[in-house]
Amino acid sequence: MHPVLFGHLAIKRSSLILFLVLSTAAAARAQDPPPKIGPFVVDLHATVPKYPSSPALAASHDVVVAELPGRGLGLQVGGQVYFFRWRAVTFGIGGEYAASRGRKPPPDTPGGSTATDATTLRETEETFSSKGTSLSFNFGTGHGWSYISGGIGQSTWSVIPVGRAAFPSDQERLKTINYGGGARWFAKAHLAFSFDVRFYAINPGPAFLDFPGSPRTTMLVIGAGVSLK
Fold first, then answer.
1. Of the candidates 217, 221, 164, which has an alpha carbon nearest to the alpha carbon of residue 56?
2. Residue 46 · residue 79 · CB < 8 Å
């Protein structure tokens, strides 16, 4: 065989072999199962809490309903370790910490003479913090998954008009159950966008002097941010 012709055939054969090898590898990767959830994840979220606004809550802190902030801003930090998978469910255990603050200045409206007019309303600050454990049920793959979770812990919840000292009950640790759900989407191998919708069921607070204790209530907190694994 002519050397030039032989060289062309060798190049074509080598190219065909390389193409087959690459095609086989690509097909093998396409058939690989998706990664599993875990083994751990850390969440960092900015949050918007919806504070309760009820006459019972206002009476427990010597304010009127119009002085309650209603909403605030905060953060939520949590983590989960995934320890067991059964069929479509991956179980996780961990904990979370949430804190937020809201402030409501009085309306800038002149005039008025009644006790609830803008000229007599006080600026009020409301704070909430909670920490506790969490058990989660997760559905999906390592590329992204949804979850429902719940746990138990303690929280502190205060409502203080500016210029008035805090009540001792504002520092009381109250038993709190948290429950909710969310999802995580991993655009990169270790970084995801995530969101969480959580309810905090807070036990009643103690009474102070002639003021009743804060009522049993449920607070909604919506958060969004990033997750790392």
1. 217
2. no
